[in-house]
């Protein structure tokens, strides 16, 4: 952890509340990380994306846009 501290890394994963030496968390970065993580979990509902069934990059990208539009419209 000392090496990560030297390189300027920030803690963005929540910790166990009874941790012996709690570390400071950047709440704003954690909030954005949580939103992105939830979005990827929602994308996994679309099996075609999760299994990478689309053969070309273009069709895969189109499926991600379509899934994002569906998720956003809910």
What can you see in these coordinates?
- This protein is mostly helical and 74 residues long.
- It has 4 helices and no strands.
- The chain is elongated and about 45 Å long.
- The termini are far apart.
Estimated radius of gyration: 18 Å
Unreliable stretches covering 5 or more consecutive residues: none
Helix content: 55-70%
Quick one: biggest sheet?
A: none
Which class do the helix and strand fractions yield?
mainly alpha
- The number of E-state strands comes to 0
Can you tell me the overall shape? elongated
Strand composition percent: under 5%
- Spatial gap, N to C terminus: 41 Å
Instruction: Tally the helices.
Output: 4
**Average pLDDT, to the nearest integer?**
79
SSE succession: HHHH
Write a short abstract of this structure:
The chain has 74 residues and is mainly alpha-helical. The chain has 4 helices and no strands. The chain is elongated and about 45 Å long.
Features:
elongated
List the helices and strands and how they pair.
Elements: H1 2-6, H2 27-43, H3 47-50, H4 57-73
């Amino acid at each position: 952890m000392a090496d990560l501290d030297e390189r300027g890394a920030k803690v963005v994963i929540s910790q166990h509340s009874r941790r012996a030496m709690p570390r400071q968390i950047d709440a704003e970065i954690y909030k954005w990380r949580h939103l992105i993580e939830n979005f990827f979990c929602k994308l996994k509902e679309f099996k075609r994306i999760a299994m990478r069934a689309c053969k070309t990059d273009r069709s895969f990208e189109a499926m991600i846009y379509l899934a994002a539009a569906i998720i956003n419209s809910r």
